[in-house]
Amino acid sequence: MINSSRLVNTFLDLVRIDSPAGGEKDAAEFVAAYLRALGLNPKTDKLHNVTATLPGKGEPFLVNAHLDSVAPCLGVKPRVAGEMIRSDGTTVLGADDRAGVAAILEALSVLSQDAPRAPHRPVEIVITTQEEIGLFGARAVDCARLKSKIGVCLDAYGKVGTLVTQSPTHDTLDVKITGKPAHSGIEPEKGVSAIVVAAQALAAMPLGRVDADTTANFGIVHGGIARNIVAPECTLQGEVRSQRVTKLVRQEKTILRALAHVAKQHGAQVEMRVTRMYNQFRFTRRDEVVRQVSLALGRIGCAVSLEASGGGSDANIFNAQGIAVVPVGVGFEKIHTTEEFMPIHELVKSAQLVVELARL
Ligand SMILES: [Zn+2]
User: Fold this and answer.
1) Which one of 83, 100, 272, 334 has the fewest beta carbons within 10 angstroms of its own beta carbon?
2) Which residues sit opposite 272 in a β-bridge?
């Protein structure tokens, strides 16, 4: 049985520990100490990822959540009001994703206590760091040492019962436009404005929701050196995401073509660097991981809802490494804002889900 006050206390303890991306050492030590108290032998790597295995019988499965939070996340003072946990309004709460971590720890407590009467299969625990700034913790996990073929990532938006069965491939774009400086009052015709090239190219390319599978955005523009100098350089930082890699590549070509076309008209140069952040995944009801998670959700009375996401998570990294990991909703709300809150019953359900998965 889930001990809901113990679970809430674990969650409160966790969110009170400062854990910005890159500063998760203390939170990782809390998790490692909790696991040691259960008799496990956790390992912590250089990035403070914590991994451990709860031994059991049968096919192992993986549970994953991340420890880092987005700013403002220092000095969180959680407030419990009835069914809800919130921050004091000056910081995020950090339920994203300490809710996932707390639920996993509570489930492991229950499984360890009840093991003689209620056997379970092995559970591989992977608690990562630096998720919010680019899935860096997960990237550093040695997946070859993991034995699980399937798993859950307790880090998705939506109520417990939500399964993210589609996530896009995500590339970042770094564009550098090089023009030619000139005095803008005396001889502007001798200059080539990189800012004008950027503006015309941006206006000519499809951005936003490009099609049902694809989005594109340029979110940062930097350029120019002075009011009275024709801008010799302009840089653009953007991204493209798509559920279909062919569409992603097509969109990137369209962007580059627009840039090159305008640059040529003005006599400017363009370079574009494309960096893959993560690869897409797609599951259907027939996939074993979806079948098992749905079965476990059924046992705790949760309706299953399969959803597509426009974002990524640690699951994208595990899936690319051959472990079928599905992100599951943990019920946190308004994440990445100071209004973030966590309903306690969702926290309990997340822990129950992990327990039921272990007992399948
Ligand atoms: Zn998260």
Assistant:
1) 83
2) 175
25: domain CATH number?
A: 3.40.630.10
**Residue partners of 116: CB distance under 8 A and separation at least 6:** none
- Among the options 24, 68, 132, 333, which is catalytic? 68
- Please identify which of the residues 24, 96, 131, 155 carries the catalytic annotation: 131
Examine the domain organization and report whether 272 and 291 are in the same domain: no
pTM: 0.91
Q: Are residues 35 and 92 in the same domain?
A: yes
Count Cβ atoms below 10 Å from residue 177 Cβ, excluding itself: 28
Cα 299 to ligand 1 centre (Å): 26
pLDDT of residue 88: 96
User: Is the same domain home to 284 and 307?
Assistant: yes
Average pLDDT over residues 317-328: 97
117 CA to centre of ligand 1 in angstroms: 34
Give the pLDDT of residue 116. 81
- For this structure, is 288 an active site residue? no
Is 287 one of the catalytic residues? no
- Residue 246: which H helix or E strand, with range? helix 245-266
Between β-strands 50-54 and 324-329, what pairing exists: parallel, antiparallel or unpaired?
unpaired
Using the structure block, give the residue that is written with the tokens 């079928």. 324
Domain C-terminal end among 231, 246, 277: 277
Separation of CA 161 and ligand 1 centre (Å): 17
Q: Compute the distance between CA of residue 73 and CA of residue 338 in angstroms, rounded to an integer.
A: 9
Choose the final residue of a domain: 252, 277, 302.
277
Dump pLDDT digits (tens) for 120-171.
999 999 999 999 999 999 999 999 999 999 999 999 999 999 999 999 999 9
Amino acid identity for residue 37 in this structure: A
Cα of 205 vs centre of ligand 1, distance in Å, is 31
Look at residue 183 and tell me whether its pLDDT is greater than 90.
yes
pLDDT given for residue 115 in this prediction: 82
Q: Which two tokens stand for residue 350?
A: 């997340």
| Cβ < 5 A residues, ion ligand 1 | 96-97, 155
Distance 97 CA to ligand 1 centre (A): 5
Q: What is the pLDDT of residues 246-295, one digit of tens each?
A: 999 999 999 999 999 999 999 999 999 999 999 999 999 999 999 999 99
- Please give the DSSP secondary-structure letter assigned to residue 189: G
- On whether both 59 and 127 belong to a single domain, the answer is yes
